[in-house]
Design goal:
Distance between the termini of chain B: 35 Å
Shape of chain B: globular
Order of helices and strands of chain A: HEEHEEHHHHHHHHHH
Mean pLDDT of chain A: 85
Mean pLDDT of chain B: 85
Helix content of chain B: over 70%
Oligomer: heterodimer
Radius of gyration of chain A: 24 Å
Largest interface: A-B, 90 and 88 residues
Low-confidence stretches of chain B: none
Order of helices and strands of chain B: HHHHHHHHHHH
Radius of gyration of chain B: 23 Å
Largest sheet of chain A: 2 strands, antiparallel
Chain lengths: 296, 267
């Protein structure tokens, strides 16, 4: 047994450097951020010492002139908007992603590889640029308006930008590959004989989708929903560029606290609240997975 | 089985839908590229192919400096993250159970799980708390962290599908652990390592949010500079700079994909 325990230690040693980097530069910073969220903001950036839950109180209450706490929903509204936007984004990605993944999974191997590559490329390309492309399309002098005007459909340009719809579009656009790839991963392994058997038993397309594809895709759907929901919830670029900073979401609100807002403590507190949401989503997916009894 | 040939794989409505979805994914990128190569300042009017916006972008000294910073950061973060990922992949795929393994896996996945904005501000707070002001060094550290899970991905995948028998056979022939790694595992793993490094490079090159928060004056990278350019309005020059970044990442991703899928190991 001595040999196996030596092997064990070596395994730990091998993973050591990578783990060390992440513990020191990721876990520790998170812990420090958690501490900062309980400190008093320094008006010049950074924080001062007295411990206080003030930043969390500020999330729900505002102080009036008499220093009385009054219930204030400004930040709650931003959070609610973020959750709603992220949920809609997840739903739209699922509606587009599931049929697309099923189509990809039923193609011959060579075409499949090409399709996977085509979906993967946007996944790895710069999010800033991909979001900016929509500005080119949607702005008042943008392509969509120019085409519509050239066709004589509209006289005055329609303002698409700086609306919830534009933000949603940007979110769906940037998240779609995150939904398609895991669902495709789950459907890729489906035995074609099962589909044939279903057709032999007089199933129609809709029945195939509902009774066969959907249950088989389920582990991929759970993973995809998580991969779409979490980044969409904390999105910064879409609300910032397509929402023009008017349609704030949590991500842009946090960013503001560290730039124009100069309230690091409040920013850290918002981040911690966001992390709680994220952990909640993670636990939901873990729970769904064990409940259905599928290991991924 | 033959007559009438009903083929369930023929799904015309799904095909149409999928083609539309792909158009949705690519049309905006194509529009950007077309704009960047259009000689006319007015975007919709095509007055010929031109690279003058690229020339103009290259003439911008700030942009050149930002591009150089991006390359330096990626050039350091990529090898460092890949170097620590190779042994980590071996530990997770070849090492049997070891204490803290589950926690280790969770830790490695952390940069993927945490929302980018949270990672960004936590890193910013951390650097501020310890008083680290190393210019590009700060950015390099931040990039190395989130590059690790991406570099690890293809290496682990390759190890998983590589039969252990090959390594066992080498061990039977009295190769010691180091010889097995150097003569057997490493050569077989090489394409995956290069694929992982390429992904790390792309992720580093593309990162915007974390760099935006962490970078101090003078340590601006290309995406961050582009962002400040775009804030001032849509210009053909910005389109050209964005196109360059876009084409570099697409090339790298295709390269990485080809490497990772090159000839699977035969058992």
């Amino acid at each position: 047994m001595a040999a196996s325990s030596a092997r064990r230690d070596r395994a730990l040693l091998l993973a050591g450097p990578a783990l060390l980097v992440i513990v020191v530069f990721m876990l520790l910073p998170m812990a420090i951020a958690a501490v900062y969220s309980f400190l008093t903001p320094d008006p010049y950036g950074g924080v001062l010492h007295p411990f206080t839950p003030a930043s969390y109180v500020r999330f729900v209450y505002d102080r009036d002139l008499d220093d009385q706490l009054i219930f204030d929903t400004t930040y709650l509204q931003i959070f609610a908007r973020s959750v709603v936007q992220a949920l809609f984004c997840t739903l739209f990605c699922l509606l587009i992603g599931l049929p697309l993944a099923w189509y990809m999974a039923t193609r011959p191997p060579r075409l499949r590889q090409v399709l996977v590559l085509l979906v993967t490329i946007p996944f790895w390309t710069n999010l800033l640029i991909r979001t900016y492309c929509w500005v080119l399309l949607l702005r008042d002098q943008g392509l969509v308006n120019q085409v519509l005007q050239a066709l004589g459909l509209i006289k005055e340009p329609i303002t698409f930008l700086y609306s919830d719809g534009a933000v949603q579009l940007g979110l769906v656009y940037s998240s779609l590959p995150f939904m398609v790839l895991p669902i495709y991963g789950a459907l890729e392994k489906v035995d074609p004989r099962m589909v044939e058997a279903a057709y032999d038993l007089y199933a129609d397309r809709w029945a195939i989708m509902r009774r066969l594809v959907w249950p088989l895709a389920w582990p991929g759907v759970v993973a995809g929903c998580l991969l779409v929901f979490v980044p969409a919830l904390g999105a910064f670029l879409s609300p910032d560029i397509l929402g023009g900073g008017k349609k704030l979401m949590i991500g842009s609100l946090i960013q503001q606290q560290f730039t124009t807002g100069r309230d690091w403590s409040f920013g850290a507190a918002l981040s911690m609240i966001l992390m709680i949401f994220v952990l909640g989503a993670l636990m939901w997916s873990a729970w769904r997975r064990t409940r259905i009894g599928v290991a991924t | 089985m033959s007559q009438k040939g009903f083929d369930w794989r023929r799904m015309p409505e799904y095909r149409l839908f999928s083609m539309l979805a792909l158009v949705f994914l690519y049309a905006p990128l194509v529009v950007l590229i077309v704009y960047a190569f259009n000689a006319n300042r007015v975007a919709l009017i095509w007055s010929g192919f031109s690279v003058k916006w690229f020339v103009k972008a290259f003439g911008n000294e700030d942009l050149r400096r930002a591009a150089w910073n991006s390359i330096v950061v990626a050039a350091v973060a990529t090898p460092v993250s890949t170097l620590v990922s190779v042994p980590a992949a071996l530990a997770f795929e070849r090492g049997r159970f070891f204490p803290g393994r589950a926690a280790g896996e969770a830790l490695i996945a952390m940069p993927l799980v945490a929302p980018e904005i949270v990672t960004a501000i936590a890193t910013l707070i951390f650097f501020e708390a310890i008083g680290l002001r190393a210019g590009l060094g700060n950015v390099i550290i931040a990039h190395t962290v989130f590059c690790i899970p991406f570099a690890l991905l293809p290496i682990r995948a390759r190890l998983r599908e590589m039969p252990v028998d090959i390594e066992d056979a080498a061990r039977d022939l009295y190769a010691d652990a180091w010889a097995v790694f150097r003569r057997v595992t490493l050569p077989l793993l090489m394409p995956a390592i290069v694929a992982g490094a390429t992904l790390a490079f792309v992720v580093s090159l593309d990162d915007f949010l974390i760099t935006l928060m962490v970078a101090q004056a003078g340590a601006t990278t290309l995406p961050v500079y582009l962002y400040s350019m775009l804030r001032l309005g849509v210009t053909p020059e910005a389109n050209a700079a964005a196109t360059i970044l876009l084409l570099v990442s697409i090339t790298a991703v295709v390269l990485s994909y080809l490497l990772a899928n090159r000839r699977r190991v035969k058992a």
